[in-house]
Write a structure and sequence with these properties.
Strand content: 25-35%
Pfam family, one: Thiamine_BP
Radius of gyration: 18 Å
Order of helices and strands: EEEEEHEEHEH
Protein name: Thiamine-binding protein domain-containing protein
InterPro entries: MTH1187/YkoF-like (IPR029756), Thiamine_BP (IPR002767), UPF0045_domain (IPR051614)
Strand order of the largest sheet: 1-2-3-4
CATH class of the largest domain: Alpha Beta
Number of helices: 3
Helix content: 25-40%
Mean pLDDT: 79
Family: Belongs to the UPF0045 family.
Domain Thiamine-binding protein: 50-140
């Protein structure tokens, strides 16, 4: 279902998935997850955030100093995390806890560049903990079965 909200943006609601996107022209994207009742998302349990932050508009090809500062923020957060060549994944108890770490990591990269690119993916699955490792373990088990 898509409905327009005039010049302020468009609202996309997918009721069966309990997802609402509020698109605002030129001012970014607001994502409301969970119930439409305020505060519900914070209570939905552990979730994974996979993200990639890169500086733009800097001289040279290397982004590793800026990325290292972002990864340092993640590791100092104390949250379970994993960094690969393309993404860093964290497991947080709440939306606010995870997004606070992402925000601090973006701010660390902003110290290096006038422009920053952020790619973010979240897996919100109430009632499941330890998914950072167990999701991979389940795939590996299937691979071992042949």
């Amino acid at each position: 279902m898509l409905s327009r909200a005039g010049e302020r943006g468009a609202r996309i609601a997918i009721p069966h998935r309990r997802l609402v996107l509020l698109l605002r022209g030129g001012r970014g994207l607001t994502v409301l997850l969970g119930s439409r009742a305020p505060g519900r998302l914070r209570q939905c349990g552990p979730m994974l955030f996979a993200f990639s932050i890169a500086p733009a508009g800097t001289p040279g090809d290397s982004v590793s100093p800026a990325v290292a500062d972002a990864v340092r923020v993640v590791r100092e957060s104390g949250l379970p995390n994993e960094t690969t060549s393309m993404f860093t994944t964290i497991e947080a108890e709440t939306w606010d806890e995870g997004m606070a770490v992402v925000k601090r990591a973006v701010e660390a990269v902003q110290a290096h560049a006038p422009r920053v690119s952020l790619v973010l993916k979240a897996d919100i699955r109430p009632g499941y903990t330890g998914q950072l490792a167990s999701k991979v373990e389940r795939v590996e088990a299937h691979l071992e079965e042949g």
